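ok, trying the design again with the full structure, not the truncated one.
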């Protein structure tokens, strides 16, 4: 999987989906726009539904609710991670990144345009709050704890 750099300061969700889908930021942004999703809409980085909807447009499926992060070893082979979690005006916000386990390697794709390297392995510096497992087919079992809200 290759990193996609966000073209807008608030486009991390679009870039994360683009990386997983294997398309450009421009393509993912166009598909997002046709689905009523915009990088400038706060729900893109304060709710999970917009990225779940965008993933589905590319034939991908995320778990219906977030799973609390416990350890890097517990993550599935592909997951959207919420890092830099904070509150703005009483609303939870985060930065979307993609965790990948492939061919014995583990890394995070971070779309932040200010980074020199978008493939990260500095796991100790990132502090994920929760994650959404992502699969190509809905038949793949994706666990999430009961009672978790999609945020």
């Amino acid at each position: 999987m290759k990193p996609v750099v966000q073209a807008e300061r608030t486009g991390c969700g679009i870039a994360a989906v683009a990386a997983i889908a294997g398309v450009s930021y421009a393509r993912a942004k166009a598909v997002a726009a046709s689905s009523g999703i915009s990088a400038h809409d706060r729900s893109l980085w304060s709710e999970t539904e917009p990225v779940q909807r965008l993933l589905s447009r590319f034939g991908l499926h995320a778990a219906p609710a977030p799973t609390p992060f416990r350890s890097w070893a517990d993550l599935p082979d592909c997951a959207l991670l919420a890092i830099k979690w904070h509150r703005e005006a009483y609303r939870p916000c985060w930065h979307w990144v993609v965790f990948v386990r492939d061919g014995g390697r583990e890394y995070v794709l971070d779309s932040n345009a200010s980074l020199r390297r978008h493939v990260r392995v500095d796991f100790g510096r990132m502090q994920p709050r929760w994650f959404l497992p992502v699969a190509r087919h809905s038949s793949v079992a994706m666990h999430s704890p009961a009672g978790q809200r999609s945020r």
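Keeping the full-length input from now on. Strands lie at 61-62, 67-68, 78-88, 91-102, 105-109, 119-120, 130-135.
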